[in-house]
Design goal:
By secondary structure, this protein is mainly beta. 6% of the residues lie in helices and 47% in strands. Bound molecules: calcium ion.
Length: 290
């Protein structure tokens, strides 16, 4: 009984210690809410039929007979559904696409593909010719496999000669600058003048920059310093020691709240809080994959 009590006291002490410094990270706008893509995870059917077509996505091609486009279960990331496209010949390109509303500014078009063969084109495009001068955007990323590369040698970089693993989903990202006067863009993902086979899943289109909002609570522990690092950037993107609103040589106000404006929405961040006692507490944002 005595040892159980000791254990409980120890556990309580551990729980208190673990909760002593709490680091909460959010973004403005929230990353999920900032996604303008409908049916972004490809899980929703158009209409009541489960084996119908995916909601909000359509195939666009001048030669429909060259393509097989479907929406199979179990082919997506984590066993979900994905958009699937086969091009039987090199005669034309074909794309799954969706139109989204935009306002002027920088966006990121992101998602995941896996491919057996073929040259992929991921692009965001739109034009408004009803104003003078006309405005438009055509932002592209090419990915793909060297399989059948003799058909389009111009787009095959050396490092792609082995080709991607057909069972692995790879990320793509396209930066899109929307000019004044353009109110919508089309997001297209498909095969570009090559025979091939590809799947697409978990797509997003949203602001390229967001505000990172931190709230660090010491809960009894005084905080000496809060630092934010971005992956592959040497200097911190924020340090409370360089912040003129944080008086030098004194603990930070508690809880400590700060907004780091206009950081890349697709960045990975490490937030480090140091207590006056020298303890370091770290949080990754977004949370690392399990
Ligand atoms: Ca999916």
């Amino acid at each position: 009984m005595r040892s159980l009590l000791t254990l409980m006291v120890a556990l309580a002490a551990f729980a208190t210690m673990a909760a002593a410094v709490q680091i909460d990270v959010t973004t403005d706008p929230p990353l999920d809410a900032a996604n303008l893509v409908r049916n972004a995870d490809m899980e929703v059917a158009a209409g009541a039929e489960a084996d119908g077509e995916p909601a909000d996505w359509a195939l666009s091609t001048a030669v429909p007979e060259n393509f097989t486009a479907d929406w199979p279960e179990g082919s997506g990331r984590n066993g979900s559904r994905a958009l699937h496209l086969i091009a039987h010949d090199k005669v034309m390109s074909g794309y799954w696409n969706q139109v989204v509303p935009v306002t002027p500014g920088d966006y990121l078009f992101r998602g995941f593909y896996r491919t057996v063969s073929g040259r992929l084109l991921l692009y965001a495009h739109g034009r408004n010719t009803e104003i003078e001068p006309p405005v438009g955007v055509d932002a592209r990323a090419y990915h793909g496999s060297s399989v059948a590369s003799f058909l389009v040698p111009v787009f095959i970089p050396l490092e792609a000669l082995t080709g991607p693993d057909p069972d692995t989903y790879y990320p793509f990202a396209v930066k899109v600058t929307v000019p004044e006067g353009l109110e919508q863009v089309t997001l297209s993902m498909g095969l570009y003048f090559t025979p091939g086979e590809v799947w697409f899943d978990d797509v997003s289109f949203g602001p390229a920059q967001v505000d990172l909002k931190l709230r660090v609570s010491g809960d009894g522990e005084q905080l000496e310093k809060v630092t934010v690092f971005q992956d592959e950037v040497e200097a911190p993107v924020y340090s409370s020691t360089d912040d003129p609103t944080c008086p030098a040589g004194r603990p930070l106000p508690e809880p400590f709240e700060v907004t780091v404006p206009d950081v890349p929405a697709d960045g990975s961040y490490l937030i480090v809080a140091k207590t006056v006692g020298g303890e370091l507490h770290r949080v990754h944002f977004p949370e690392e994959a399990q």
